[in-house]
Design a protein that fits this description.
Layout (H helix, E strand, L loop, with lengths): L3 E8 L3 H16 L4 E9 L3 H11 L3 E3 L3 H4 L6 E4 L6 H10 L3 E5 L6 H14 L3 E4 L6 H11 L6 E9 L20 H4 L3 H17 L2 E9 L4 E3 L6 E3 L5 E8 L4 E7 L8 E8 L2 E6 L5 E6 L3 E2 L2 E2 L8 E4 L21 H17 L7 H20 L3 E2 L3
Parallel strand pairs: 1-2, 1-4, 2-3, 4-5, 5-6, 7-12
Antiparallel strand pairs: 7-13, 8-11, 8-19, 9-10, 11-12, 13-14, 14-15, 15-18, 16-17
Helix pairs in contact: 1-9, 4-5, 5-10, 6-8, 8-10
The chain binds nicotinamide-adenine-dinucleotide.
Nicotinamide-adenine-dinucleotide (NAD) binds next to α1.
Length: 387
């Protein structure tokens, strides 16, 4: 039985508000941590949404102004699930109020804002986490384990794609629920911060820091109606972004993201090629990790090369990351469990004194790569990533 309570104040009743609330509710069903999350306050600027969310997910009260959560004595943890423009102000206020902070990705609108957020949580010494939840897909955690075990060997290539197709129509407006992603003032950038931030975080987790980038972005639809103003306004975000990267370990990366890949809904893949092996992941088959192991000798015998090939590992055994918490081998878990695994790691980090990653400082490094990518696209030249 979890002995300590963790009072939660969650801000933003949209897509991420739901995934995070689900994780709080189920944490103690699956993970033997000492803390029990208590859903204290839900906050959204739209009162009706907040009230309905409170009832559906079982929060104790609803607010429309996030500032009220900062003084609430019963809140230990502020969870930021609002559009990117509001991350900085809320996170800094939460840290100053002595609250733990979980913030959705990307950390901020740009690295300057991110620096301020890192300063605030480090000065206040409050536990903090950025929600790059894909790290907690068991197959991606297994990829990390395989890399750390040295099975890929000297890395040469890293290749990531993140493709969607929902903004092809010029009739899709900008601004408002979910569509704030098309409004530069709310999002900070387009696919770079929204999709490539995930790819960059995973890439640097598996393959180390990125030193230099050269990028090309495109905005295919130049003007869209803005839901709030009702007027047709210029589109400031990048609809597509492709960049080349040099990693500190000498390997080369290619990253591609767009919302104009007809038929692709949330196509998130990566491949790492090293001297001794390769790994490949595709979010459309999330319970599989593909692994190629290069060996010339096995058990003292020459490897029979006509039998070598890629292995498609079904990542559902109890030996696989996180899977001992769930069902029997051969049965799989889903997207929502990545948020549950993430929360479990965060709480375990508080309890053990070894903070879970990625924290805000790690999120800032991804933000710096995003900034360098966008600056490179503007100037048409290679950009060093700020240290
Ligand atoms: N980790 C992931 O895979 C993932 C996936 C989607 C979104 N995100 C991130 O999560 C954040 C939220 O995205 P979403 O898809 O949930 O958006 P959403 O549009 O579905 O929901 C956002 C909610 O925040 C509310 N809101 C806006 N400003 C507010 C404010 N100042 N105070 C209180 N409430 C406010 C809106 O009314 C809305 O209900 C973004 O930063 C986004 O980049 C992460």
């Amino acid at each position: 039985m979890a002995a300590k309570t963790l009072g939660v104040g969650l801000i933003g009743c949209g897509f991420m508000g739901r995934t995070h609330s689900n994780a709080y509710r189920r944490l103690n069903n699956f993970f033997p941590v000492q803390h029990r999350p208590v859903l204290k306050v839900i906050c959204d600027t739209v009162p009706e949404k907040a009230r309905q969310f409170m009832e559906v997910w079982g929060y104790e009260r609803a607010e429309t102004d996030w500032r009220k959560l900062m003084d609430a004595k019963d809140i230990d943890l502020i969870d930021i699930c609002v559009p990117n423009f509001a991350h900085r102000e809320i996170a800094v206020a939460a840290a100053r109020a002595g609250k733990m902070v979980i913030c959705e990705k990307p950390l901020a609108m740009n690295a300057a804002e991110g620096e301020e957020m890192v300063r605030a949580v480090e000065e206040a010494k409050v536990p903090n986490l950025i929600s790059f939840n894909y790290r907690r897909v068991p197959s991606i955690s297994l990829a990390k384990q395989i890399v750390d075990e040295g099975r890929v060997g000297k890395p040469f290539h890293y290749r990531a794609t993140y493709l969607q197709d929902w903004t092809i129509s010029a009739d899709v407006p900008q601004g408002g629920d979910a569509l704030w992603r098309l409004d530069i003032k709310a999002a900070g950038s387009g696919v770079t911060g929204d999709l490539l931030a995930h790819s960059i975080d995973t890439a640097m987790w598996l393959n180390g820091p990125i030193r230099r980038v050269v990028a090309r972005t495109e905005t295919f639809v130049k003007e869209r109606k803005h839901v709030v103003s009702g007027k047709v306004e210029p589109v400031g975000i990048d609809d597509a972004c492709m960049f080349l990267a040099e990693f500190a370990n000498g390997s080369l990366g290619t990253f591609e993201s767009t919302r104009y890949a007809r038929g692709r809904k949330n196509f998130n893949t990566f491949e790492l090629n090293g001297a001794d092996g390769s790994i490949y992941f595709d979010l459309e088959e999330p319970e599989y990790l593909q692994f190629f192991e290069y060996k010339q000798q096995q058990s003292g015998r020459k490897v029979e090369s006509h039998l070598t090939g890629w292995r498609k590992i079904h990542v559902t055994n109890s030996e696989h990351p996180y899977m001992d918490r769930y069902w029997v081998p051969g049965t799989c878990i889903g997207y929502e469990h990545t948020f549950l695994n993430q929360l479990a790691d965060f709480v375990a980090g508080i309890e053990s004194g070894t903070p879970a990653q990625p924290d805000f400082r790690s999120g800032l490094q991804t933000q710096k790569v995003c900034d360098a990518v966008l600056e490179s696209a503007r100037g048409g030249r290679w950009m060093e990533v700020a240290p």
